[in-house]
Amino acid sequence: MTQNDSLKNWLLEPPKYTIFRINKLMELDIVNLQNYLEEQRKELNTNSIPKYYFLKPDCLVIEQWPTTLSFEKSKNEVIVDPLCAAAVLRGAHVYAPGVLGLPTNCDINERIDIYGSMDGQCKRGHKVKYDGNKQYVGTGFLKMLRYHLFDKAVQPSGIAIQTLLPASRLPVLNETIFSKGQVLLQNLPSIIAGWVVNAQPYEFILDMCAAPGNKTTHLAEMSNNKAVIIAIDKTIQKCAKIQQTCNKQGATCVKAYAYDSTKIHSGDDNNNNIMEPPFCSNSFNKILLDAPCSGLGQRPQLNNIISPKMLQSYKFVQRKLFDAAVKILEINGKLIYSTCTVTVDENEGMVAWALEKFPCLKLIPAEPLYGGPGLPNVGLSDKERLMVQRFGPEDDELRPVEDIYKNTIGFFIAAFVKTKDHNS
Ligand SMILES: C[S@@+](CC[C@H](N)C(=O)[O-])C[C@H]1O[C@@H](n2cnc3c(N)ncnc32)[C@H](O)[C@@H]1O
């Protein structure tokens, strides 16, 4: 198998663990999880609940149901779109807009097998058994019939199938089992990006591409709401989403602005307004650039429809954002760059480009280092490869990776320090 094939296969599978980021600003009702899993255990008629544990105080890991669990094939099948199929594999219910096909002879509450349409050929409203390319993703209980889903007069919403057991055997979990704001379903490398920033009280931190605010709130929480965090995204709607996430999680030290971060450096260094964009040179102690990217690290990836032209385009906006970040980062300040993709251009390629373009930047270890090293032979020395974190299927003897950090989404993190003024 080539490296490319092994990456493709890895991307088709969901992560093996479900992760909740715990909001340390609130008390956690962990007993809710125990009770919820107990209820599920009874319904699944099995002996034990999945193992769960804290990887760190702000990171709760839940494992899969035992391999012995299985169900007989159900009488009927529902066909869902690839995005919905991917969500089911990660432990979600089926929401009405994701349903493409359902037979006419179904009854409410019957158990029904869930299939993802993999060929894009299944049309909404499909009535009979689908014979195209489909993948089994789980089984559940039917909560809506055809007329709820496909009648012209309805805008379908709500749970159409209550998932009982995904094919991945991940537990069906969502944030609603806890009180509002206590937890957030978040991919492990995204949480690690927050740990790398390591926000401390009284630091002045910029989150350049912040919506929906999942990392912003993490930074606020880890500083105990004592850092000053400026969160930017490009539209008012995205900015409102950041504010909403902050309100939900009690993050009170965040100021969100709608702004184009490629233009966030003010040409006027006498501008004394430090709280609003654009910012003058050398303003921030730390900057998180969680860049817009091709998103090819999402797992499982059941429909990849990104065009080669689109794929090529990301590095240009990433470079512009990076350039602005370097200017407004203070000397000795730390810049953390992250993406949720697997392409070299957007990851190791960006690091190599930045080190060449900005003599004021020094690569530093993106600690804590849990992911693998950067890929070899793409512009980074072994020493540099060891300083970054790549989350992917690769095995590299430079740094072995524990299963939990391997069986997650594709992601990349690099950290830099600005050692001198960017003009010098
Ligand atoms: C990977 S997402 C950020 C996710 C976010 N950091 C989180 O953890 O919740 C990238 C974000 O960059 C934003 N973005 C893209 N171009 C931008 C620009 N020029 N200025 C500011 N934000 C931008 C997108 O709107 C998108 O919300």
Automatic annotation (TrEMBL):
Keywords of the record: Methyltransferase, RNA-binding, S-adenosyl-L-methionine, Transferase
Pfam families according to UniProt: Methyltr_RsmB-F (PF01189)
InterPro entries per UniProt: MeTrfase_RsmB-F_NOP2_cat, MeTrfase_RsmB-F_NOP2_dom, PUA-like_sf, RCMT, SAM-dependent_MTases_sf
Residues that bind S-adenosyl-L-methionine: 209-215, 233, 260, 290
Keyword Cell inner membrane on entry: no
Positions of the SAM-dependent MTase RsmB/NOP-type domain: 111-419
Biological process, per Gene Ontology: RNA methylation
GO molecular function: RNA binding; RNA methyltransferase activity
Domain of life where this protein originates: Eukaryota
Keyword RNA-binding carried by entry: yes
Residues of the active site: 340
Family to which this protein belongs: Belongs to the class I-like SAM-binding methyltransferase superfamily. RsmB/NOP family.
UniProt-recorded name of the protein: tRNA (Cytosine(72)-C(5))-methyltransferase NSUN6
Organism the protein comes from: Vanessa tameamea
